[in-house]
Amino acid sequence: MEPIDDAGRPGAAADDLVTGVTIFTSRYCGYCRRALALLAGKPVTVREIVVDADPEVRRQMEQLAGARSVPQIFIHGRHVGGCDELYALERAGRLDALLAADAACADGRDGTTTPTN
Fold it and tell me: Residue 9 domain-assigned?
């Protein structure tokens, strides 16, 4: 997983959050490392965006998440919160289902049917 950092790469647009997992982090954040460690054991693509040195990327994160702290985690465009919320989903047995729903939607299998009429 290659972090997107302050090297002039574009920030996260809302459209970028639609597939996979996007996690906004800071280089020296223990909670960020814990969240990344949990996600590393899952069959999911993770996009890490480091917000340390780019105030504009941090502002985008704050606008998208409604929070200033890191990590801020999005699964299939849905803001799930930070590290504590991610681990709560895991403990409740809901994280794998959420990630699987993400994979199904990315493959066009969103579980919905379209009427033929």
Answer: no
Residue 95 inside a domain? The answer is yes
Q: What's the CATH number where 76 sits?
A: 3.40.30.10
- Residue pLDDT, tens place only, 79-100: 999 999 999 999 999 999 999 9
CA separation, residue 69 to residues 76, 112, 114 (Å): 20, 35, 40
Alpha-carbon span 110 to 114, nearest angstrom? 11
Number of domains comprising the chain: 1
Residue-number span of the structural domain to which 35 is assigned:
14-106
Burial class of residue 92, CB neighbours in 10 A (0-12, 13-18, 19+): exposed
Q: Measuring CA to CA, which residue among 39, 30, 28 is closest to residue 1?
A: 39
What are the φ/ψ torsions at residue 77 (nearest 5 degrees)?
Answer: 80, -5
Q: Provide the percentage of residues in the chain whose pLDDT is more than 90.
A: 67
Please say if the pLDDT value at position 112 is more than 80.
Answer: no
